From TrEMBL:
Domain of life: Eukaryota
Localization, UniProt: Mitochondrion
Molecular function, one GO term: RNA binding
Alphabetical list of InterPro entries matching this protein: ClpP/crotonase-like_dom_sf, Enoyl-CoA_hyd/isom_CS, Enoyl-CoA_hydra/iso, Enoyl-CoA_hydra_C
Protein name: AU RNA binding methylglutaconyl-CoA hydratase
GO biological process assignments: fatty acid beta-oxidation
Family membership: Belongs to the enoyl-CoA hydratase/isomerase family.
Gene3D superfamilies xrefs: 2-enoyl-CoA Hydratase, Chain A, domain 1, Lyase 2-enoyl-coa Hydratase, Chain A, domain 2
Lineage: Eukaryota, Metazoa, Chordata, Craniata, Vertebrata
Keywords: Acetylation, Lyase, Mitochondrion, Transit peptide
Organism: Aquila chrysaetos chrysaetos
Cellular component GO terms, alphabetical: mitochondrion
Length: 328
């Protein structure tokens, strides 16, 4: 995998070249504007997240307010980050953000990680948003710094190179929903409650909500939900495309987590390098025009050709057996 991921370092030049060629071809047409080259730069920046780095232990680690569990056996490769501030409904405070940032920083360079699930360890709640009690004690200058830290931490989560799933078994409001929106896939119990309610406090979502919600459910509907501070349940969230899967809550109160775990298991057999590059191509391609996006896809596809995993995949297909990928 090291060789393959090292090759991804060449993605910057290749994407820039491909995007430049695409842009040049468009310039020759009257009335057409050249595609904005920001997609190439963004792709290069995201590619840096795919570079291999220090390893992180496979044994479970527990923190006071954030629990990090590395699953074993048939779930090996899945990491669960559990919010655990029962006394504050998992509200995001300085300490929790610090723990989340530290955990994400370790995960992004861990070759053994295939999928990350974000969940709550507290029954009935996913995340109530920012810790307003802590914020009330902050000086006005500290508030801006706190919001910037929350935005940066959630962006780090969004940029994890592996698939991420939010398991919403309870209430997700404000920053809690922004956290879930930063995940690739969202699963929720039908009884869960979700909403960006900041306008009730005479502020706006400040950790990505005004940008990720429109990209998820469409501009008009996102405006309606933010303007009204409306809270929706799991069923409505599914109907508007806010979540991918809705499940009936069980007696244990972890139905969404169980569905997320089953979904994560579907990802485990696939080629690790291909999964990372596919996420990169999709994320960066969605931010640019189609011509530039296709150039990004071409550059990303090229990174999967020389890998040992690809050779193993073809051999396994020929021999009619499950592939044994090593992430190389």
């Amino acid at each position: 995998m090291a060789a393959a991921l090292g090759g991804l370092g060449l993605l910057q030049g290749r994407v820039r070249l491909a995007a430049a060629v695409a842009a040049t071809s468009s310039l020759g047409r009257p009335g057409r504007r050249a595609p904005v080259p920001r997609g190439a730069a963004a792709a290069a920046a995201a590619a840096a997240l795919l570079s291999a780095g220090r390893s992180y232990g496979s044994e479970a680690k527990e923190e006071e307010e954030l629990r990090v569990r590395y699953l074993d056996d048939e779930h090996k490769g899945i990491v669960v980050l559990g919010l655990n501030r029962s006394q504050a409904k998992n509200a995001l405070n300085k300490n929790l953000l610090k723990m989340m940032s530290k955990a994400v920083d370790a995960l992004k360079s861990d070759k053994k990680v295939r999928t990350v699930i974000f969940r709550s360890e507290v029954p009935g709640i996913f995340c109530a948003g920012a810790d307003l009690k802590e914020r009330a004690k902050m000086h006005s200058s500290e508030v801006s710094s706190f919001v910037s830290k929350a935005r940066a931490t959630i962006n780090e989560m969004a940029n994890l190179p592996v698939p991420t799933i939010a398991a919403i078994d309870g209430t997700a409001l404000g920053g809690g929903l922004e956290l879930a929106l930063a995940c690739d896939i969202r699963v929720a119990a039908s009884s869960a409650k979700m909403g960006l309610v900041e306008t009730k406090l005479a502020i706006i979502p400040g950790a990505g909500g005004t940008q990720r919600l429109p990209r998820t459910i469409g501009v008009s509907l996102a405006k309606e939900l933010i303007f009204s501070a409306r809270i929706v349940d799991g069923e409505e969230a599914k109907s508007i495309g806010l979540i991918s899967h809705v499940v009936e809550q069980n007696e244990a109160g972890d139905a969404a987590y169980r569905r997320a775990l089953a979904l994560a298991r579907e990802f485990l057999p696939q080629g690790p390098v291909a999964m990372r590059v596919a996420k990169l191509a999709i994320n960066q391609g969605m931010e640019v025009d189609l011509v530039t996006g296709l150039a990004i896809e071409e550059a990303c596809y090229a990174q999967t050709i020389p890998t040992k995993d690809r050779i193993e995949g073809l051999l396994a297909f020929k021999e009619k057996r499950p592939p044994r990928y090593k992430g190389e």
